[in-house]
Design goal:
The complex is a heterodimer of chains A (222) and B (355). Chain A is built from 5 helices and 10 strands. Chain A is an alpha/beta fold and 222 residues long. Chain A has 2 domains: 2-96 and 183-194, ATPase, nucleotide binding domain (Nucleotidyltransferase, domain 5, 2-Layer Sandwich); 97-178, 2-Layer Sandwich (Nucleotidyltransferase, domain 5). In chain A, strand 7 and strand 8 (135-143) form a beta hairpin. Chain B has 2 domains: 2-122 and 306-342, ATPase, nucleotide binding domain (Nucleotidyltransferase, domain 5), CATH 3.30.420.40; 131-304, ATPase, nucleotide binding domain (Nucleotidyltransferase, domain 5, 2-Layer Sandwich), CATH 3.30.420.40. Helix content of chain B is 44%, strand content 19%. Chain B is built from 11 helices and 10 strands. In chain B, strand 9, helix 9 (282-295) and strand 10 form a beta-alpha-beta unit. The longest helix of chain B has 34 residues, at 233-266. Chain B starts with a strand and ends in a 32-residue tail after the last helix. The chains are: A alpha/beta (222), B alpha/beta (355). At the A-B interface, helix 1 and helix 2 of A face helix 2 and helix 3 of B.
């Protein structure tokens, strides 16, 4: 299966054309804190040109849907859905959590993996996968220190908050920690090729908007 | 030429197909608007995060619907245009990125349209409006008097120093316990209110500029309301009528200044063109009629569904720019702030290919 994979959810802007049989055909990845909205589409144009594959010849578009930066999610998901619309190809969403965990589980799925993505102010997006890749702890947003209270057993910690989470955990619970600012784009394609393409990708925000309805006017006669 | 237009700068997700004929006239082939009023109503105003989330999930289907209604396959459009600002950045990103994606896949020109420019040019889609003309744009997000001298050639004569007029309507409504969106509610209440009961200020009256200031008026309404609270239904109606009366006076005074400046610098305008949701207010429209009459200019008010945010105006502005060769590249930036007089109006030389 041939895919165009896109990731703008975290600290990188990345695009790749992949063949699930032959691996990466063309790819680009650049670390950036901001500027995804400007950088992504020219990058996709370059990667497509370099791959020698037309949009027509793609089977799918895979995109990271989060959790991550809200702006980044909107850039990536809008791009994927726009390309899907124009090329008449399905687009699928891949969570940043699975994309970060996958290479580690592929290497050794007998040791649990905790993904921890920095969400600023000592908060993090966290999800744990147990042996065989089963979800041990569903994706959630919360203070990083809460993981110290979970007794998940020895595991590998991965993501932009991995180092800090590893420090918070008892030493015997951490086998190793891997600082990863963003997923490997080849794995986004790999995961995107599996499973159904029936539902268009939607940003995975985790949490609702913080706006509160205002109090009713106090000036009226009751 | 047929242009797809995408609008996502505030709380309407919109897509449209517009055709521009060789003689410069236009026709709307389809125009789909999905309003988010229901999502924002409990908050008494537009919540940017809620707006951004709604745009992402609705836009592609809306574009398909616009294509279906126009009976034109996407491959047959000549260009794709999106509002690239000014507006709520989360939504602008969604619309512009989607437009870029379509432009890339189909290898069509992209036009990153200034949302205010689209309002300014709408009068040329719905009728004959030769340059130069004077635009009065008043909505929940913008309040401007603009000299429209040509496509891409705009001079802002006046703007609001604080709140937009539509915002003042909405905030007044909210304060008086009226549902969102408040503008139409204030107008309904004002119909049976006494517009002379409350003495409200006309900020910047007769000041030698065409700028607006509304926050003092809004505060004055609040102080009057608090002074006589608890409010009876008649009190609410009288406050609304007095507020709307003040708005009309302010609009007439500021536009008189703006049109005088226009006359001195650009000659007689061919028309006074109104745009934005506030132009749907009948009292404001009467005020505009008086001002246009005094200035000897024709008043042009596009139909209400083209005065408020829509995709057709973006497609039309895109078509007008495309006709002049004004296209953008895939690196175009979404902009939260984008003053109208910084819009480029000569084709940019192609940048040197990277070495």
């Amino acid at each position: 299966m041939r895919l165009l994979a896109i990731d703008t959810a975290l600290a990188a802007c990345a695009a790749a054309v992949c063949d699930t049989n032959g691996g990466i055909i063309a790819s680009e990845s650049e670390l950036m804190a901001r500027g995804h909205a400007e950088a992504l589409m020219p990058m996709i144009a370059r990667v497509m040109a370099k791959s020698g594959i037309s949009f027509d010849q793609l089977d799918r578009i895979a995109v990271t849907v989060g959790p991550g930066s809200f702006t980044g999610l909107r850039v990536g998901v809008s791009a994927a859905r726009g390309i899907a619309l124009a090329a008449r190809k399905p687009a699928v969403g891949v969570t940043t959590m699975t994309a970060l965990a996958a290479p580690f589980l592929a290497e050794d799925d007998t040791m649990p993996v905790l993904v921890a993505i920095d969400a600023r102010n000592d908060q993090g997006y966290m999800q744990a996968f147990s042996t065989g890749g089963h979800v041990l702890l569903p994706a959630q947003l919360g203070p990083l220190r809460t993981v110290a209270m979970l007794k998940l057993g020895p595991m590998r910690v991965i993501g932009s908050a991995a180092k800090r989470v590893a420090e918070l955990l008892p030493a015997d619970q951490v086998v190793a920690s891997f600082d990863r600012p963003a997923p490997d784009i080849a794995w986004v394609a790999q995961i995107g090729s599996a499973g159904s393409a029936d539902n268009p990708p939607k940003p995975l925000y985790i949490g609702t908007p913080s706006a509160k309805p205002p109090p009713a006017s106090q000036l009226l006669r009751r | 030429m047929v242009v797809l237009g995408i609008e996502t700068t505030c709380d309407e997700t919109a897509a449209a197909l517009v055709e521009r004929h060789a003689d410069g006239t236009g026709a709307i082939l389809s125009n789909i608007v999905l309003s988010q009023i229901e999502e924002h109503a409990p908050f008494g105003g537009v919540v940017p995060e809620i707006a951004a989330r709604a745009h992402v999930e609705a836009l592609d289907q809306l574009i398909e619907r616009a294509l279906y209604d126009a009976a034109i396959p996407l491959e047959e459009i000549d260009a794709v245009a999106a509002a690239a600002g000014p507006g709520l950045i989360g939504g602008v990103i969604v619309g512009l990125t989607t437009a870029k994606a379509i432009a890339l896949v189909l290898n069509k020109p992209l036009i990153a349209v200034n949302h205010l420019e689209a309002h300014a040019l709408t009068a040329r889609l719905t009728g004959v409006a030769p340059f130069p003309y004077c635009l009065f744009l008043a909505s929940g997000g913008h309040t401007q008097i603009v000299a429209v001298l040509g496509v891409g050639n705009y001079v802002r004569l006046g703007t609001t120093l604080d709140d937009a007029i539509g915002e003042a309507f909405d905030k007044t409504a909210k304060m008086l316990g009226l549902p969102y969106p408040g503008g139409p509610q204030v107008e309904i209440q004002a119909e049976h209110g006494n517009s002379l009961r409350f003495k409200l200020p006309r900020p910047l009256a007769r000041r030698d500029s065409a700028d607006f200031s509304l926050s003092g008026l809004k505060t004055a309404v609040r102080l009057e309301a608090e002074r006589i609270a608890p409010l009876s239904p008649q009190d609410v109606a009288d406050l609304c009528a007095s507020f709307q009366h003040a708005i009309c006076d302010i609009v007439m005074d500021r536009l008189t200044m703006g049109l005088a400046y226009f006359l001195t610098h650009y000659g007689k305008p061919t028309a006074l063109v109104a745009a934005g949701g506030v132009a749907a207010n009948q009292s404001v429209r009467r005020a505009l009629n008086i001002i246009a009459l005094e200035a000897g200019a024709k008043l042009v008010v596009p139909p209400p569904h083209l005065c408020t945010d829509n995709g057709a105006m973006i497609a039309w502005a895109g078509a007008e720019r495309l006709a002049l060769g004004l296209i953008d590249d895939l690196g175009a930036s979404p902009l939260a702030r984008w003053p109208l007089d910084t819009v480029k109006h000569t084709p940019q030389p192609r940048s040197e290919p990277p070495r």
